Amino acid sequence: MALGSSAAVVMELMTMGYQSAAYLGELLRSASPATAGEQQELAAEILRCCDRVIAKLSRGATGATTGKKRKAADAAAAAATSSSLPVTPTKRRARGAEAEREVRSGTTADGFIWRKYGQKDINGCKHPRLYYRCAFRGQGCLATRRVQQSQDDPAAFVIAYYGEHTCGGDAATAAAAAACRDGELMPPAVINSGGASNFTVAWNMGSHEPASLAVEQRSCDGDAPSETSQGWSPSFSSEVELDVAGFEVAGADEPWANSSPVWEFLNGSFDWESVINSL
DNA sequence: AGAATTTGACCATT
DNA sequence: AATGGTCAAATTCT
Hints:
By secondary structure, this protein is an alpha+beta fold. The chain has helices at about 5-30, 35-60, 70-80, 170-180, 260-265, 270-275, and strands at about 100-105, 115-120, 130-135, 145-150, 155-160, 210-215, 240-245. The strands form 2 sheets. The chain has a 5-stranded antiparallel β-sheet with strand order 1-5-4-3-2. Strand 2 (about 115-120) and strand 3 (about 130-135) form a beta hairpin.
């Protein structure tokens, strides 16, 4: 395959992330099999994200037009994406249409850049439902997601994804590449150590005083979509929030604190080469 | 000023 | 008619 150098870098980093998440899942399972459920689910989600990027890269950018199954209305709209003007012949998703993927996670961050376009109170649900679309819709990306805070566990989100990221070959990967250029990593998944779920939601109206910190990605060069015509000119500030309160590496009392691949990973001495070669 | 979110209206689907 | 998804004007944020 003919991967560009930046794509190769992203591929390598995503492979690292994949291996890290896999190993983290192992650690969580062996460390505390009883309480590792939620944490393992987070690790699993990281795995899924990495897996998707890797699949995309190894498949090449030609996968953009090879959208698998898209709803009829969306397909019709996609046919007209050559004219960058999304005149939008009113493509409305059927109520309760099944998502292509549904993820239950402790964070709403998934590495993509989303723009919120609506919010709705749902009949029996305590929390509102939030609607997002890909920030690169101006480029023809029709990916959409629906985020809902779980009724029982306020620290969990149920995220339903619709549509494929047709921007994946350039936009999301470009953002990743830009982040790598700047020596930064992709927005990490939420770190929520221990059983105490002190992760709070920012959009909880009224009282949003979470112990969270915002992470922002910087834009890459000029391919940041500047489409003022439709009011769609997203920047690269995503709404990533992560709780750092419970994440103290230095003072960790965990048994693996100072002598494990995790620690090696954190202080930068982890032997990635052997990991990659073992693929 | 421009960008991003909020929020009520609008409309398709059930 | 009720419900859920989207639009777009208004508002807030940077």
